[in-house]
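ATP-dependent DNA helicase
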Amino acid sequence: MPVEETPAPAWRYTVSVRELCEFTAKHGDLDRRFTPSATALEGLQGQQAVASRRGADYETEIALQAEEGGLRVRGRADGYDPRRRTLEEVKTLRGRHEDIPDNRRLLHWAQLQTYGALFCRTRAVEEVALALVYFDTLTQTETELRQVFGAAELEALFKQRCAAFAAWAEQEALHRQARDAALATLSFPPGRWRPGQRLLAEAVYRHTVRGQALLAQAPTGIGKTIGTLFPLLRAVPGQGVDKLAFLTCKGTGRLTALEALGSVRETMPAQPLRVLSLVAKEQACEHPDKACHGQACPLALGFYDRLPAARAEAVAEGWLDATAQRRIALRHGLCPYYLGQELLRWADVLVGDVHHLFDPNGHAWGLAQALGWKLAVLVDEAHNLVERTRAMYSAELPLALLQDTAATAPAALRAPLRRLAAAAREWLASASTPYEVCKEPPDDYVQALQQASGALADHFQQLPLATGPLLNFHFELQRHARLLETLGPHTLLALQTDPDTAHDGQGGRAAIVLHNVAPAPFLRPRFAALHSAVLFSATIAPPAYAQRLLGLPENTGWLDVPPAFPPEHLQVRVAAGLSTRYADRPASLQRLVGVLARQFDAHPGNYLAFFSSFDYLAQAAERLAALRPDIPQWRQDRRMGPAAREGFLARFQPQGQGIGFAVLGGVFAEGVDLPGPLLIGAFIATLALPPVSPQQDAMQERLQQLLGADDDAEPLGPPELVPAMQKVVQAAGRVLRTPEDRGWLWLLDERYTRPEVVALLPPWWGLGPAAENASADSKTFLAAAAAASE
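Predicted structure tokens:
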């Protein structure tokens, strides 16, 4: 069918079918009622199942594209059956299609109609049948909603949607031009480069231009945040990057990133850079006691009808931190959290936690895949990413929780939940050790798990406004079931039992656990889909550890920025002959606090003393108080809130003196900036190794197997040492914050002289073979400290 061409405007904007339809066809309430949605993998499997039931001539993944005015609309239709002349859109779900809200179903039809219009243009056909196919993964059945459309009708609907989007598209195209023009001539906001900062920036720019990943280790105090943001922003125009994501493993990094981005925007004419802070739902929700649906929450009622005005105001403002999002949302009667989720599509820079991209349900990742974004990513404090992503792909199902839920659930759910509890209890009873690794779950447990999950799904389909513990339990059970389906060498399936109570019928602390050891199988496709990724930290060596455990590409680069200060500015000493092993602590405690006291006497000032646990911290602090009550001290405790943490840090004054006791790897061991006289030294007791336990033994054994599977790979030594030494170096990094700082670092354990430990510490610390033990003056110091403590 001939298509009437319209003159194209000066601007051009490429939009996906999904994005076009979501902008023009979404109306009515926000509806986040629970529906048993399928995972991305289940969606792919559903499409494959539908295709396998069609004929040999069935076409799949049909690329379609057309231009209308200044728009280039593109997408992929799921399938075309030439025998029935039917274009299909497959929507995979877990449960009944009747439970899909009306406004979402209308959106599905809008997408299919748009594919139909593009199909008719491409194939020059006069009419086509459109079939919306809902595929239920639980029953493996499909429901087809089919309707025949003429090409002229579909063309009219397509042009109507394009016309509705055109004004916004022109605005976005002009915004992109202004943004890229400003970034191409961007000046370095601080004006002057710090030592090492330019080296870091050049490496970031180079790898971004090449579309590669980079692991960068750079010392504290050189300005890593602006040193990575600036070169990436400069690379955006030439590489056609759609969005930049600055992701952090800890909340303090987000504030630093927003400060740096604020300084960048101030240097740009008209500030054409939209910055969005990704806010957690529990922090942004105005009505946590209400369900996310128009019948329950006033901020969900008519959400999509009021969204256009709020969206226009937000993108015009451009600076969208949590405060701005809340102000704009409430002015228009919208939920702040879901307004922020909508604004993801229109922001240039996203600042938030790493879970937005790496979690199985990460919204930023889902949108990037669905809308085809070219995404460049920065990950701050990346030494934490292995542990963070391990937690994302781990799950635990406590027997006590399962039994309590079965006892208190509605009557219709009790039977399947009790069967699951019985199967779990029987499986746990078979364990012969407190932590027993299993190859696979028993068939009866899997069947009971499927039945219980299905029963819960049916229950919540009938009660879409339900909230509370039972719904949370259902989410956890879904998570447990899905991770069980991905079981492999990267994850330990184990029975965790309490030897005193596991077999008493009450459950005790017994649980079925899935402990992820290496998140690489889950993360590898995500890194591969990014344009570039820069993972940076003051402690990310050795690079092979992060690269192999996270699944980074083989061509990932490595940069180790030298320190910005002379090595002699940090006096590093090892307490050789001092053991802080658990069994040796009572005997060595008096000598340990003697080192603290002697160092304080020799060089009075502010110090931090790091210990492996709160119990060990308390023992050392109390012993020092008894030995030297004249030395001021303050301690971190288990339940410190924001005010208490601020009070702890406030004790570090320029003219102050004393020792702050903190936990190694805790909140005061990272991201704390105490330059100059605020902190002149640190003591680090123990090696930050994880506590000895059957679980840790199993984790390390599996990790050793995974890291040693490739004979050509770089040997890493004992894998448990890598994160331990990263914590040590992070804590030590609190001492020198500027090139002018000077200070002392005491490593309080004889194991710091071992070659495998020294190999993971900064070479400039001077702990190599030539300094295998403490120096002569250090030995003299230790002897004096021991005598003084007696």
